[in-house]
Amino acid sequence: MSRFEDESFLTTWIEAVNADPAFTEATRWFDGSILLDDDGAQAWLKVYDGAVIDRKPFMPPFGYTFKISAPRWAWNELPTGTKFTDLLLGGKRRYSGPEDLTGTPNLVPGAFVIEGDTMSAYRIIQAIYLMTDHYSAAARSSERAA
Amino acid sequence: MKSTEDIVGRYVRVNGARTHYDELGDSGTPLVLIHTLYACSMEWTRIMPHLAAQGFHCVAPDLPGNSRSYPPNWTPLTSSREYGDFLSDFITAVFGDRKVVVAGTSIGGNLTIDLAVRHPDQLLAAVAMEGGVWTPTVMSLQPFMNPASLPSWPEWMERCAMESLGPNVDEEIRQELVWQHRFTGHRSGMPQTNVWTEHDLRDVAGPVDVPLLVLHGEADFYMPEEIVKLTQRTIPNCEVRKLDGIGHYPMVEDPEGISAIITEHVNKHVPGRA
């Protein structure tokens, strides 16, 4: 099951995000929505005035400002300590084996993909990182409790 | 032993551009230290006293366009070859005809290998950290060369640096690394991501006439093991060493240990050093 289908996890995670003053500062002048996707399981977050002020388990008809998606294995890598940068930029994951190094580089992108209004996304890239930090912490906390 | 407060900043003209470098020691074996992309000479601050104590005359430039160095003709350089040629001219400007040891990290590691391949006559020995003969290991950031296209790039870059550190780095060192990435602007720093992804010496590299040591941090996700092996195959007479628990910034993460490794390599290969 995706963590986006786990109400208890979502509550813990979003409370932690909203309690983080760095997130508040980074999104102080952001008015938009973020669609998160984990192999089809979704969480839509409305962010305004420095906080997540609403969320839904699906994308509303009016869409999203930007979308962050990744296969479930990548979301599951975050709580294990794998860095978001590693999963976003590609890094060593661009290589499936030595054959990728013999000719044109393997152009497999990072596991996490940001789509939509990427200008707005990168404007609050610090907030995105903080959300992944809190996602990892909440997931670890949830696993310890289980 | 000299301290970090003994480091002095100096300037030299290279290809017409006023170029800044940090210096520690005024005698000993010349050692040129090349920083990572979007950063500056301060990345070498903690290691310089250790190296000076081992008899090195340390010189760490700000690459052209970074921190306090202007780019030649007000145009940031865009390739390893351009940076390598610039560093060759920098070595001549500072040390004349004397041969130097060179050490660098990340694009500095790539440039160290570039110098060993294309300018071996200027080198006594070389130590490349987190660099290789070919490093297309992150996605292209080509669409983001104009500052208006990527708001908050500095914050992203800081995370890119912080997250690639090894697991046991003190908070003070982490904060220093953040600040070391705050003195270079988008117009120089962003093109350096392309210098990294488009760096390719596969067609020109082979056995080198310089003792070359390649260091590889095991926790560095920017430098996959396959690239290290490719580098070793392409330059069969280079020596490769893995650094346990170290990420993308060995000289920042373990200055004393990296100083000892550089010293051991140079003492082993440079006459009169042992």
UniProtKB/TrEMBL annotation, chain A:
SUPFAM superfamilies attached to this UniProt entry: SCP-like
Upper classification of the source organism reads: Bacteria, Bacillati, Actinomycetota, Actinomycetes, Pseudonocardiales
This protein's name: SCP2 domain-containing protein
The cross-references to InterPro entries, in alphabetical order and at most eight, read: SCP2_sterol-bd_dom_sf
Top-level division of the source organism's lineage: Bacteria
From TrEMBL, chain B:
User: Locate the AB hydrolase-1 domain: which residues?
Assistant: 31-259
Q: Which residues form a coiled coil?
A: none
GO terms, molecular function: catalytic activity
The protein depicted here goes by the name Pimeloyl-ACP methyl ester carboxylesterase
Which InterPro entries does the entry mention?
AB_hydrolase_1, AB_hydrolase_fold, Carboxylesterase_BioH
Organism whose genome encodes this protein:
Pseudonocardia ammonioxydans
- Pfam families from the entry? Abhydrolase_6
